[in-house]
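Suppose you are handed a protein chain with no further information: no name, no annotation, nothing but its sequence. What can you learn? This example shows the usual starting point.
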Amino acid sequence: MGTEPAINRERYFLKMKGTGRSLLQVNVGDSLTGLAGGFLTIVALLYLTNMTSSSWLMAPFGASCVLVFGIWNSPLSQPRNVIGGHFISTFIGLFMYHLFGNEPWTIALAVGLAIALMMLTKTTHPSAGADPLVVILWAYSWNYLLSPVQFGSIMIVIFAL
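A reasonable first move is to predict its three-dimensional structure. Written in structure tokens, the prediction is:
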């Protein structure tokens, strides 16, 4: 009886080791596409930010690049999901922030609502799940929905296509 917890702990850590077979395929071409696509997209957004008085970049866009350039054939990486997911999640974050302020429950509820609404509208994009965190923690205004969110997500889609 005394060794049972130790055996369960050992099984748990063996699972974490990853003895199973990975479904991910190594594809050098896709890796190079990810490198080039991610680089060109982010450098373009940074360049536009430096050229204009608007921000064209936010942290979740890095994760969006992983999806659209690395797993481009996933339903979560499609243009509707990238643009719609970022729009919905940011809108929810801004709505919750401007209605209730920067409270822990506001942030948590905004993320949950964003996930639910993305799923209900078939615009689920995992990277967009971070948008409510960004807008609430940094106290952004409604302008953030247009730039960088909409302009930036459209740019990502254009580069991906």
